[in-house]
Amino acid sequence: MRKPKIREVIVVEGRYDQNTLSQVVDATIVTTGGFGVFNDGEKLAFLRRLAEQRGLILLTDSDGAGFVIRNHLKGAIPAEQLKQAYIPDIAGKERRKQKPGREGKLGVEGMRPEVLLEALRRAGATVEGEDNAPQDAAITKAELLEKGLIGPGSAAKRQALLQRLSLPEHLTPNAMLEALNLLLTRQEWEML
To answer: Which residues 6+ apart lie within 8 Å of 93 measured at CB?
Structure first.
């Protein structure tokens, strides 16, 4: 089977993530070198240039470290040049590791190919030869407030929804809104 060709540059944390993803898609895949991206001005300048020319898809692990890296890059690259791809929280460890990570979750390298491909599609990846249809009307913060997902006493309800949708537990309310808009149709949202 031919690998889907993706126009945007995909940014992952490390070389094992890069290797796994390169088996799933035909795309330019760049690593951050983990937290190394915080002190590497040349890497950041390179990522900014790639974002400007082709757009970036950020695909980090769903653990706390992945979100620290994701948030750093979200602050350094214009939002219109950056798409967010999220993998679900799945307990386990990668085959090459003797024990699971601190949070006990699989990272990008441990995900099944179909999970990675679905995450990229839901992020809005431009896949060559596929129709990238326009999205439904966006879910708004006001709608999150109506459903009790933001505001006073909303944390438990928000965590329950994140778990139900297999989304990372570390999503901020704004990141959750972004993920909901990527993952749910208007009809699915209204049925929640």
So the answer is: 99, 100, 101, 104, 106, 110
